[in-house]
């Protein structure tokens, strides 16, 4: 009796296919000259799954609005950084104003974080995957 050096497999996976899916499946296994089982094992271990993310129109509007807000925060933050850099170059006469600009930058960053956190709560903190 011939012995094979393969792991003992006890679990069975079942699925149903349409006629078109089965035809495509049959063509692929004949093309690769594999058994159905081996083809499925290869597909399971060597492929990556790309999830489909569906966004409802309400969430789409929310995400668009947040995107615009985030872009505005970025522009305002950039302007504040330029002002702060200018104030730092001229030194002593502008120290009080420089401190106010730094405080405004800090508040802006905190506000941006809070908005993103609230959006995450509203959307459900959906985990994203690299597609």
What structural category do the secondary elements indicate?
mainly alpha
Low-confidence stretches: 127-131
Terminal CA distance reads 48 Å
Q: In percent, how much strand structure appears in the residues?
A: under 5%
Main β sheet profile: none
Overall number of structural domains? 2
**Total strand count, please?**
0
Task: State the helicity in percent bands.
Answer: 55-70%
> How many separate helices?
4
Describe the structure.
This protein is mainly α and 131 residues long. The protein folds into two domains: 9-47; 57-123. It is built from four helices and no strands. The protein has helices at residues 19-32, 36-46, 57-90, 95-123. The relative contact order is 0.08. The model is unreliable at 127-131 (pLDDT under 50).
What topology does this entry show?
Elements: H1 19-32, H2 36-46, H3 57-90, H4 95-123
What's a quick, concise take on this entry?
The chain has 131 residues and is mainly alpha-helical. It contains 4 helices and no strands.
Keyword list:
single chain, 4 helices, 67% helix, disordered C terminus
């Amino acid at each position: 009796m011939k012995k094979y050096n393969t792991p003992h497999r006890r679990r069975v996976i079942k699925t149903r296919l349409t006629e078109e899916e089965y035809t495509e499946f049959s063509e692929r296994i004949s093309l690769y000259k594999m058994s159905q089982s081996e083809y499925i094992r290869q597909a399971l271990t060597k492929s990556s799954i790309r999830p489909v993310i569906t966004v409802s129109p309400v969430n789409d509007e929310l995400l668009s609005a947040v995107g615009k807000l985030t872009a505005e925060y970025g522009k305002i933050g950039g302007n504040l950084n330029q002002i702060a850099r200018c104030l730092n170059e001229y030194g002593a006469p502008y120290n009080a104003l420089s401190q106010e600009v730094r405080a405004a930058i800090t508040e802006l960053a905190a506000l941006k974080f809070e908005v993103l956190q609230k959006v995450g709560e509203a959307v459900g903190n959906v985990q994203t995957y690299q597609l």
